[in-house]
Design brief:
Radius of gyration: 15 Å
Shape: globular
Number of helices: 5
Mean pLDDT: 91
Low-confidence stretches: none
Number of domains: 1
Number of strands: 0
Length: 118
């Protein structure tokens, strides 16, 4: 994955599409986070569950700012670097990359379907 090309792609999206992509990413990240806990309340990887929760906290605010068209929202590059920059914690990096990969595939597939049907 090329970080600069992902930033360029994201920067070209309309605000609502940026929000849609981030929302789809959060959905996929929640799927990844399911591996951090077992049946019931048995959390066996609290560090990474907390990591996912922190990303959720930050990105839901960014989505709100995008939809409200707030001028004070983080720059596109900041958002994508927060997600896709290399991490020392390779498990966290894998969680994000897996979720982002599925999100971007689903997002592009949705856009293609909309264009073909329109």
């Amino acid at each position: 994955m090329n970080l600069n090309s992902e930033i360029a792609f994201y920067a070209e999206l309309r605000l609502v599409d940026k929000a849609r992509l981030l929302n789809l990413f959060l959905h996929e990240l929640a799927e990844e986070a399911r591996g951090t806990y077992g049946a019931g309340d048995q959390v066996h990887d609290g560090v990474h569950l907390r990591f996912v929760n922190e990303l959720n906290y930050r990105l839901t605010r960014v989505i709100e700012q995008l939809l409200a068209e707030e001028a004070t929202r983080p720059a596109d590059e900041v958002v994508l670097r927060m997600l896709l920059a290399p991490r020392a914690d390779k498990v966290a990096e894998r969680l994000v990359f897996n979720a982002y990969g599925r999100a971007i595939q689903g997002f592009e597939s949705y856009d293609t379907t909309v264009l073909m049907g329109g």
